[in-house]
Amino acid sequence: MPWSEIPVDEARALLASENPPLLIDVREPEEFAICRIEGSSLAPLSTFGGATPPTVDDPDRTMLVICHHGIRSQHAVRYLDMLGYRDVRSIVGGIDAWAVRVDPDMRRY
Q1: How far apart are CA 75 and CA 38, in angstroms?
Q2: Fewest C-beta atoms under 10 Å: which of 54, 62, 63, 87?
Q3: Domain 4-101 has CATH 3.40.250.10
Q4: What is the pTM of this model?
Q5: For residue 64, is pLDDT > 70?
């Protein structure tokens, strides 16, 4: 799986499914405090390296990764792919695209 991405609308549908993927937010705590998607787990990209964050503990589970605009999440997906995680995708456009397309009441920065 070479660093795949998923559009916001598809991510929304997967997260609403009966067996939703794990949603990992790789922004920093200050950003996470501004806005976040319900049910997401914070694992700042700055904490990656040497070992995966505890919230990212199952290499066989489907995971979606989100950040502010989609750049850090792509880096996280590449890193997890190198560690053997099998189904990890970056949400295109990040939390900003989510706010625009899915949750217009979400605070933006």
Answers
A1: 23
A2: 54
A3: yes
A4: 0.91
A5: yes
Spatial contact of 95 and 26, defined as CB atoms under 8 Å apart: no
Beta strands in 1-109 (DSSP E): 4-6, 22-25, 41-42, 63-66, 88-91
SS3 6: strand
Q: How far apart are CA 98 and CA 78, in angstroms?
A: 21
CA distance 31 to 24: 14
Exposure string of 52-84, with b = 16+ CB inside 10 Å and e = fewer, is bbeebeeeeeebbbbbbebebbbbbbebbbeee
**Higher per-residue confidence, 3 vs 14:** 14
**Cα–Cα–Cα angle for 91, 31, 7, nearest 5°?**
10
Distance between CA atoms of residues 68 and 90, nearest Å: 11
What are the sequence ranges of the domains in the chain? 4-101
